[in-house]
Amino acid sequence: MQPLCISAFTASCGAGSGRAPLLEALRNGRTGLRRNDFGREPLATWVGRVPGVEDAPLPGEFDTWDCRNNRLAWLGLARDGFLEAVAAARERYGRERVALVLGTSTACIGATEEAYARLTPAGEFPADLRARRVHAPHATAEFLQRALDLGNVAVTVATACSSSAKAFAQGARLLQLGIADAVIVGGVDSLCGSVLFGFNSLALVSADPCRPFDAERSGINIGEAAAFALLERDGAGPRLCGYGESSDAHHMSTPHPSGRGARAAIHEALARGGIGAGDVDYINLHGTASLKNDEIEAQTIAGLFPASTHASSTKGWTGHTLGAAGALEAVLTLLALESGFMPGNLNSRRLDAACGPQVRLASSQGRVRRALSNSFGFGGSNCVLLFAAAGAT
Amino acid sequence: MKPLENSRLYVNGVALWSQRLPGWESARRILAGLEAAPGDAAPRPAPQLLPPNERRRAPDTVAVALEAALAACRLAEVSPASLPSVFTSRYGDLAITDYMCATLASTPTQVSPTRFHNSVHNAAAGYWTIAAECTRPYTALSAGEHSFGAGLLEACIQALSGTEDVLLVAYDMDSRGPLAAVAPSRHLLAAALIVSPRRGARALAQFDLKTVTDAKAGLSVARADNAALVAGNGIEDCLPFLEALALGGTRHITCRAGPALALEFALQSF
Question: What are A47's strand-pairing partners?
């Protein structure tokens, strides 16, 4: 495919808000995970919680959309000059040519959960939460469409943990077909009871800081994040060179044992970018630290890539940010392309026997010209993105 | 807005299921005014693609979405395993959302693992690809009251970006519990379309996709008695398109795909 320009990008998560703090946390090996202190009866686990979300209400005119997820979205947009880049795109192309494709798995469900916890004696939503436009999957994208004054496509992608990776693919198609001239793609998911207790019910949550690809890993930590990129056909900046999407067609909550869906998505992303596996310098793995995902993903990577490819999961820094993971990890991948810094697997001590030489415990510095980001989700939805450094295509 | 260069698309398959429009064959006659809608609501479908023990246990949205998806494939005479798909729903499974929120408020550690994995917005799409043994990509979208149009646009974009049929499945259900006050939706409804850049063996219609940002565009509305059959459902916007297919001839369709974006085309039935 014709590479697309990423003219602005930013991310906020437990490990840092904005590119510079994030890169610093990566370089210093400083985790964003902390003991879970979220909710009335916190589960014994660790979470990637963004500090200060509670204390950052939306501007008054957007009161109707106020909730944790939208606060996180707003906080995230304000970093790295992203709002200014959106304003410039709106100016350049007109509001009706700027689209939004937003990935999220649970949107503002935390606000709906809160309403159920505070029902009136008559069993109704309390007045404050009843008045808000937050009780639907599209609520965050709707808020952003209004707040950013966008007049093109504004849609929510909700394919669980692949959501915001697929937002890049959908956004790319909007540009390729000329439906839009600029597309804001991104992902926002915030801590809520549904995901903490939901993943706990599946026995997937670790009581300790998660250890991706470690032989003794014991499950995932939930995190929250807001991450955005501005895609355009031309301009300065790194490139989106390919994407691959596939379905496992296997099970709602377990990956296909042979990794066939993951492999198909990787092959498609490489083919779209017109490169071979040997050209990939860095891979940001899905690496949730669940037993199954990491085993199957490690085998898949070992079977496809040369030993020279450096592969790692950054979830030891961020936790698994679910629907925001695709966009967050796209931004972390772009940081690797920009800085040459390739993270290792934080918190992990001894790699699983399934890992080939690609999966590294330690971070390293090198030349990163092309990099992949893997996102694999519930319902067997897979998406792999291929990025290239500015000037590498 | 710049016109798309090659925007010709074919409707190679269609399906519709709601409690008073249970299946395309009868829906086609009802929507065309040839037959009265049944007075009683049909029981929810038991999607044939699922194993018998899962048909009963499947959430309502999964059952109705899979029923419509399979019916569209059969009408088009295409293999369900061969199609990339776009699923779209304004609210997702409202009964499961009600269950999750109620359980989290009372006994959070008792959340059912099955209900949790069924609570994801892509549950219907996930079950479809598993049941159809389809390894092609799917997506699961939502766009508020414009969820049908946004899904139709993405299905058309995927079809125009490639060379093959794309399955669109739009669905919503009736709301339950306290949530009903803020997410009001009625009926159990699913519509499926197969859109393609190639005319299929059983193609029903063709159109040239156009997107317009002129908010003045008058939206298509279904006949009042038809509209009443699905009124209040999260994807009720699908009805003018389906009614046009049922009526035949050439019908002008303007369908919202977002607050400032609409799809506009003449739907020419064969």
Answer: A34, A222
